[in-house]
Fold this protein.
Amino acid sequence: AYFESWRKCHFPRRKDLDFLSLPIAGSIDAIEGAKEMVRLGMGVSVFPRHSIENLLADNRLYEFRTRKAPASNTLYIVSLKNNAYPNAVREVMAWILNADK
């Protein structure tokens, strides 16, 4: 999903470019494992920036930047119907909803 968001942002006309058309060094179901694979030199990947801030800050990962704005993705906040949100969720929602103001 992250790769597809990045591809649409940076290469919108390249319909032939998809995740499966690239050489895959390995596969793992957890983002922590994927970050470790990249950190150990097993290729490149696309991550949400907030998930790798600490690795970028201490130079354990390198960020490839282009002249375009970073890729973005729609964020959906969901819960069970008629379920009260915990305080932490309400705070995050308020932060997101006020980010553009």
